[in-house]
Amino acid sequence: MRAAQSLRGRCSRGFTLIELLVVMLILTILAGVGLATYRNSITTANEAALKQNLFVMREALDQYYSDKNKYPPSLETLVEEKYIRALPKDPFTQSTETWQVEFSEPDASNPLAEPGVFDVKSGSDRMALDGSPYSEW
Predict the structure, then answer these.
(1) Is residue 94 part of a domain?
(2) pTM, whole model, 2 decimals?
(3) Residue 10: inside a domain, yes or no?
(4) 39 within domain boundaries
(5) Is residue 11 one of the residues assigned to a domain?
(6) Which of 48, 73, 88, 92 is deepest in the core (most CB within 10 A)?
(7) What's the CA gap between 56 and 89, in Å, rounded?
(8) 122 and 135 in contact (C-beta within 8 Å)?
(9) Blockwise average pLDDT, block size 10, the chain, 137 residues
């Protein structure tokens, strides 16, 4: 009877150091996986926002060209002439000033038309999740 009581007393003392270390290791692994998933979801959301912003600005450039038969001299012209309400922020640089613009080639059929903003791209130097640079989107 004494052996049973001493065995019962030994089991109720608490956790061993090994058990605590195993639990801490499992929690660390779960936290690491959760943090990686969280960061990927934020990047995916920013990529979706960048695609949408580029689509809206390119659509406005096309509408401007259709209306005036020339490209705008700057992105701000799209706002001034109400083709878009405001220049969107680049989600990776958090600025409206970092958009990279490409100017059109001079039009041989219309020599008086000045080259204007033909395309717009992100000013970010980061790489996308698919491995392509955002500045090439």
Answers:
(1) yes
(2) 0.77
(3) no
(4) yes
(5) no
(6) 92
(7) 12
(8) yes
(9) 55 84 96 95 97 97 93 95 96 96 85 86 95 94
